[in-house]
Amino acid sequence: MRKPIIAGNWKMHKVLSEAKGFIEEVKGLVPSQEKVDAVVCAPALFLESLVQQTQGTDVKIGAQNMHFEDQGAFTGEVSPVALKDLGVSYSIIGHSERRELFAETDESVNKKTLSAFQHGLVPIVCCGETLEQREGGQTNEFVGSQVQKALTGLTEEQVKQTVIAYEPIWAIGTGKTASAQDANEVCAHIRQTVAAQFSENAANAVRIQYGGSVKPSNIKEFLSQPDIDGALVGGASLEASSYLQLLEAVAND
Ligand code: PGA
Questions:
Q1: Atom of ligand 1 nearest to the CA of 236
Q2: Mind listing the pLDDT tens digit for each residue in 146-173?
Q3: How far apart are CA 138 and CA 61, in angstroms?
Q4: For residue 5, what are the β-bridge partners?
């Protein structure tokens, strides 16, 4: 049985006082981590403060990006060593906004995924097709190849701990979602890709999230699919009440 994982991706939203206010509201109310893993991926500036604020609670804190090198002359970048030192648990890697706007490549996604494990961070590895690729019937091939490249060089044990987020680019922040069946089909294909590259065991253990306009009113539909184990949520994770509703919908299922 794979435990569901709901991760909020705040992107470049909030100032510190708002971030702390959010955690204050949710921290006593999130369902037990025996039922669901609750993660908040916050801007790097707030991570130290939020890690401290969530100590002893069932909320885990994630970064939205990291560099693959431990340290060095990389102006403006965030070191995975520094993230781990702060007590950060997860890092999103290869979000489509980073791929599109900040020149993230399959190669750097792979290096970051390997580096995350080296430093004891759980990677949330993102993949997903454009509308053009979907309409051209290339979704499975494209997403499968993104996943295969991202996971190259991991051990089977590491793959089992990896979180993969399938996020069709055309569904992110648009209010449009893939149908739950279509999303599941791609997630099943991702699982087959992992089985072929590693093993059935690894494929059965890896958790696959759907992302793209997930909200409290549609999350159950996605989570009821056999190959969808959670959600990566942007817009609907910004308000404490909506974030809690997402978690409750999953925990009470
Ligand atoms: P959205 O974003 O929920 O606002 O569509 C999802 C994401 O980009 O992770």
A1: 3
A2: 999 999 999 999 999 999 999 999 999 8
A3: 34
A4: 37, 230
Q: What's the Cα-to-Cα distance from 203 to each of 51, 67, 106, 130, 164, rounded to whole Å? A: 31, 27, 20, 25, 11
pLDDT in tens, 69-113: 999 999 999 999 999 999 999 999 999 999 999 999 999 999 999
Q: Are 59 and 26 in contact (CB under 8 A)?
A: yes
Report how far ligand 1's centroid is from the alpha carbon of 123 (Å): 17
Ligand 1 centroid to residue 171 C-alpha, Å: 8
Q: Does the pTM exceed 0.90?
A: yes
Tell me which residue has tokens 């989570």.
223
Q: How far is CA 147 from CA 27, 81, 94, 186, in A?
A: 33, 24, 11, 11
Catalytic annotation, residues: 95, 167
Chain centroid to Cα 238, Å, comes to 15
User: What gap in Å lies between CA 212 and CA 233, rounded to an integer?
Assistant: 7
Q: Any idea which architecture 5-249 has in CATH?
A: Alpha-Beta Barrel (3.20)
